[in-house]
Amino acid sequence: MMERSEEFYQWMDKRRTVREFSEKPFDISIIENIIRTASTAPSGAHKQPWTFCVVKHPAIKKRIREAAEKEERESYQARMGKEWLDDLKPLGTDWTKPFLETAPYLIIVFRRIYELEANSHKHQNYYVQESVGIACGFLLAAIHEAGLVALTHTPSPMNFLSEILNRPDNERPFLLIPVGRPTDTFVPKLVRKRLDEVMFVY
Predict the structure, then answer these.
(1) Rounded to whole angstroms, how far apart are CA atoms 181 and 77?
(2) Domain tally for the chain?
(3) Staple partner for 67: which of 42, 83, 160, 183, CB 3.0–4.6 Å?
């Protein structure tokens, strides 16, 4: 157990967020396995309140990019405060999001607020935010394990994703994740918090 836990930590510590993707395609069955893994996550009352939409069609990716950049431009120019913008400077980000077209796949995660039964009854889901967040953690770990890279992108607001993908009323966009191989790219030299900063034993 000690050996396995140490090896897994060392592997996950190599995971990095990437913003420049190779356009080289790969089999969608890899994405299917990644989503299968994400779907093993625990959820409130085992309702599994998530939907994973995989976009590979260039025209749809282009529409998503255009809508996301519209929101991001507004955020960078008007919505974000100085402190937020200063925190982003070391990462070199701005409102342009070319990765939304260059990455071979986009995985858009939706949280399912309720389930609509045959009699039109809205059956409640439980701890939706927490459950979908855990599933996304599993998803990112599975992407890394497959030898791929990803970016957690959260344009705000994200309602355009529901419209472009024609999702039902019981779903809300949660996370937009480009997935692919990395190019030779800039990766900030990040320092993660020490264990004694994040763990307290009682």
Answers:
(1) 31
(2) 1
(3) 160
Pair of tokens at residue 163: 């419209």
Q: Is-cis flag, bond preceding 157, omega within 30?
A: yes
Residue 187 has pLDDT above 80, yes or no: no
Element of type H or E holding 130: helix 128-145
End-to-end CA distance of the chain: 22
In a domain, 196, yes or no: no
In a domain, 195, yes or no: no
Residues 6+ apart with CB under 8 A from 164: 60, 63, 64, 67
Q: What is the pLDDT of residues 86-143, one digit of tens each?
A: 888 887 788 899 999 999 999 999 999 999 888 888 999 999 999 999 999 999 999 9
